[in-house]
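Task: sequence in, structure out. Protein: Geranylgeranyl pyrophosphate synthase.
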Amino acid sequence: MAHGSRLVDLVHDRIEDFLADRTSILDAVSGDLAPLGAFSKRFLSGGKRFRALFCYWGWEAATGGAFDPFDGPDSRDRSPVIAAAASLELFHAAALVHDDLIDNSDTRRSAPSAHRLFERLHGESGWVGDGEQFGRSAAILLGDLLLGWSDELLDEGLELLERRADARAARVEFMRMRTEVTAGQYLDVLEEHAWIAQPDEEQQLRAERVIVYKAAKYSVEAPLAIGAAIGGATPEQAAALRAYGLPLGIAYQLRDDLLGVYGDPELTGKPAGDDLREGKRTMLIAIARERLAPSTRRLLDELLGDPELDDAQVRMLQQTLSDCGAVDEIEALITRQLQAATAALAEAPISEHARAELGALARSVAKRVS
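Result:
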């Protein structure tokens, strides 16, 4: 990703400007709202910016030519797509705040999650009442605030477009993404509770449905589609980007599922085996359940989702998943999905610079370690 750092800087600057404007409104209301602004900035200061990058290169795929978009002469106005890319980062921050709340996660990126930060604020301030409940309530409101702000920032960008049809198309893609990822999140929560009432032979299919709607479309396909719409993509370009984005998004989430069980806490910012304690019914678990002997499957089902799992139990479950071949099968699935994305990219009617950058992004997404 030759231009990744420059793009990230542009998106970061747009987020900073937007937050400065919106937090000034909070400051005018009350100084007591300072934590909302501070925590918003904190949650938006890091991350890999994958969604922003896919959004930008979706735009570049539709609008780019034979020149290098950063080193050659370029009169195009990037402001609309940079604002849209930044809005996706705000949306993602909102989703993470709510996701950590749903999963009761203590950490995010090696730091306390939002509800834990508010809980700590309650304790340090000596306030009355239940600090944990205050933290959860405040985190819900922070997530809602970020969600609304993501909409505002997107609209700021779309208002700059001369072609109103492109603005409407991008807005439609954004709204569809918002609906699908919320549906996917619900399905993820549902599987943690309802898996026992479902036929065993359907669990891979149900896990795949969660992958597609909670992650694959939201993380890769939708940002590409939004950027492409802003760039006035042809139907052929849009279809090609979707053919690349969906399998890559699946590979992205499959890698995430492995990291949720085997990731290095120093790199992921999450405790080892976090998905095991949360009881995530991922594709990894679905495959393992098909391969395990009945007695071992029952033990897996009994331990999965126990928040009190100790390190030895986590290591035992990790070994069980690996020994049955489920990890190798997930790695093979990631490879096949990456190959499908790469093949679609090779045939896509898009600019060569976008093709090169999207190829580099694909490899980075599928092989990441955090």
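The chain is about 75% helix and 0% strand.
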